[in-house]
């Protein structure tokens, strides 16, 4: 990461956290100059073997928070000749198990761990398993066990039932994005998996939000944990803005912003798979090429699109929540909510794709009459309050409490009549980055 001035950091250095040389050397190569707040607060306790509950979003540096101590423990156990992992073991055991909600996150976490482990000279084996691809290759990869396994719950259960892996020797269990896992309906799978792990183990739980299900899980699972609660989105680096637009004008406003702001890349969220293609077609008519990413796409197509977006070849990506969860795209300048997410916690997850690891980011929500009430719910639940703004040239008809009520009943006026009713209210300057430093 190169933009040092915008990083969220604390005073501690990685050396002070107690990490060993092969990890410190790698962090220096990756240009991680200082630990992020969660790393600074959690790593010493995790290294000491404590359980952890962390309220942290993706973008906070949470992967390194569990991955670095896990690698350090494994390396030390290996040196002491105690590892039950891959190299010296006959059984299909795993020592460090990381459960994640989606295949994208599984791959991403495994890639990060492999990257952090490069100076262990291949002595630590990491495997990722997830659904949607052939199980045979994953079974082969698990032969002889693995030190670290990153898995989605459903596929892991399949692999356990075909004896490809056993959880009896898990020493560290990580539940990453626990709220996501539970909200995606993995509760039963999770319960079944947890029952297969030994009672005595270290457990680290990361969650952006703490709905009841997660709280119950933490009470059942964790033993005298340290608790760290970070702000879910860092207000100093992630700028959130909300623009009111007339019904039927969202596409025009979106195209206008994309043309005008010339973002290097933009991630646009919609609420349904078919909306992805539909919006891509409408943008194409306005001269904007966009790729789409959702659950109906095959695995190879999803990987191709994701790689293209990560490499910067794809500039505009339209995605649904399920597909874009956990994506880590370095320095994504902007996330746009074309449709509002249904759940307030999804709002935080979506906007967390920008402004990662303390870099400046921008999250824009486009709201029309029908979204207005829901957006206030999102704000309330997430304890934020944003000023309603307008895009110059696309000023929306004033939203009154009457017009909000009218949405609950059938709309009084036919679509597209908003323009005539436009009232010139306070409008924002076209340069929506004014006042903020624009990322490179
Ligand atoms: P995560 O929250 O784990 O998904 O991490 C978000 C991004 O921040 C990833 O691209 C990491 O490589 C990066 N990152 C994590 N820790 C640091 C750090 N201390 N300094 C700079 N970048 C970091």
How would you describe this structure to a colleague?
This protein has 440 residues and is α/β, with parallel strands linked by helices. The chain has 2 domains: 15-229, Rossmann fold, CATH 3.40.50; 238-428, P-loop containing nucleotide triphosphate hydrolases (Rossmann fold, 3-Layer(aba) Sandwich), CATH 3.40.50.300. The chain has helices spanning 21-29, 37-47, 62-79, 103-116, 135-142, 153-161, 178-183, 187-196, 212-221, 250-261, 273-285, 299-311, 321-324, 344-351, 369-382, 401-408, 418-421; strands at 52-55, 94-99, 126-129, 146-151, 172-175, 202-207, 226-229, 238-244, 266-269, 291-293, 316-319, 334-337, 361-367, 388-389. The strands form 2 sheets. The protein has a 7-stranded parallel sheet with strand order 3-4-2-5-6-1-7, sandwiched between helices. The protein has a 7-stranded parallel sheet with strand order 10-11-9-12-13-8-14, with helices on both faces. Helix 2 (37-47) packs parallel to helix 3. Adenosine monophosphate binds at residues 1, 32, 35-36, 39, 58-64, 328, 330, 356-357. Residues 12-40 form the DEAD-box RNA helicase Q domain. GO terms for molecular function: ATP binding; hydrolase activity; nucleic acid binding; RNA helicase activity. Belongs to the DEAD box helicase family. Keywords: ATP-binding, Helicase, Hydrolase, Nucleotide-binding.
